[in-house]
Design a protein that fits this description.
The protein contains 14 helices and 14 strands. About 1% of the residues have low confidence.
Length: 507
Amino acid sequence: MKQNVFSTTLRRFVLYIIIVVFLFSVIIFFQAWYSILNSQSLNAEKIYPLVKNELDQRRILLYSNLTSSAFNAQAYLYETIEELALMSGKMIWIFDEEGRLISHAPRLEPLKEILEKRQTSTVDYLPKESGFMEFFGTGDAYIKNSRIFKNIFEHENIIGRSYVFIDEYNTSRTDPDYMTRIAICISSYNQDEKNAFFSNIYILLIPIILFSTLSIVMIAVFAKSVSKPLNEFLTMARSVSQGNLKVRTKYTDDKTEIGELSKTFNNMMEKLEKTENQRAEFASNVAHELRTPMTAIGGFIEGILDGTIPEEKHETYLKRVSDEIKRLTNMVKDLLILSKMDADDAPLIKNRFDINDMIRKSIIRFEDEITRKKLFINVNFSDEVTFVYANSDDIERVLINLIHNAIKFTNDGGNISISVEPKKNKVYVSVRDNGIGIDHEDLQNIWTRFYKSDKSRGRDRTGTGLGLSIVFSVIKRHEEIIDVKSQKGIGSEFIFTLENAEEIENS
């Protein structure tokens, strides 16, 4: 089943939004809860000095000469702790290592059922299962996040955590020097902080829900806008995989990446189609070019064998066979050269050489043809020697092809001019003739393999139709420029550039 890009993209974006919203919600929840705990801790730290001060005042009252009533001192402490509890909205308990309650506030009704009383005293004691003894065994002076009130009041609405301060205090009513360790335990017991916490959560839930909804809607619209052209690309890619190279996308928005992708895709398809057409044409041309000489060779040999060609003409036709074989050999050689250049596996190796000397040797190679056609060769060098930086074998092949074409398509008694001119970091080499020229509409195709722009060139039986293709490939491989100027009946001029070795060395 073909999968729609839209559904996949939308699912992924929705999953990302859910993850982001979840993490965002968790962070907010814990941040709110941490702020409440932190606020409770700060409040407990502020209340503790006040409670300790009241304990000191009780001690003064208990052992002063102003009063001898321990009851009055205890009543004073209960009243002041009660006032602190009411003002702060906290539960405040003071007890010693034995669990004896020195004072506590507020005085809740369930205490009568929960607290223990010893037979010899009317003082309230904490039950052992409350876990109060753990505070005195830790050695810490300040214990956060204790849950002692949760352990005592299982069914009461105790909010938040308890904060315990371990101190020393005289709990004896008869011995002023008797000191014992006490715990001052402070915790919230009203709904204010809990309500504030949940109200903050409720307030944040609305924007979170709205944010999630709007995000999903916007992502759905965005995913659809992105997935539509992507689905088109997917469909076209399937079509291309089946051999259809004529597909093109119509998405032309240049302001987006999809538009750039569309333009790149269309350019790629045009190049692929052009390459495929060239490949088919090249294969057809190769078959045609090979078929013609092979048919001629077969016809001549068959005529000699069956006696159709008389014996006195055998030598003439065997020479033609030899020429066709040479032409086939040159064609295969040129094809191998082009194939090697197309593969471009081996790195281009450049060396320093004199281009003027190479031109002289190339001209001498065609001395017989020049003499036979009575051509005038005009060589114009700006300097006696001109050193260039290139692959000498490749450039020699370029010169041989261009000079050979100039000789081939120049009429008897014509002129051929070859010039070399250094300009800054480049050397311009020109090969010009006053031969038959090339039609304007054929100029853009002369680099195509097996292309022959003129019937008269087509009648030339020595060429392979690959010379200019080799020239173009060599110059392109050197990352240089080659240009042609031509007019029908007037002549042609080929100009190409090479690196100026002297300028490179000087720089």
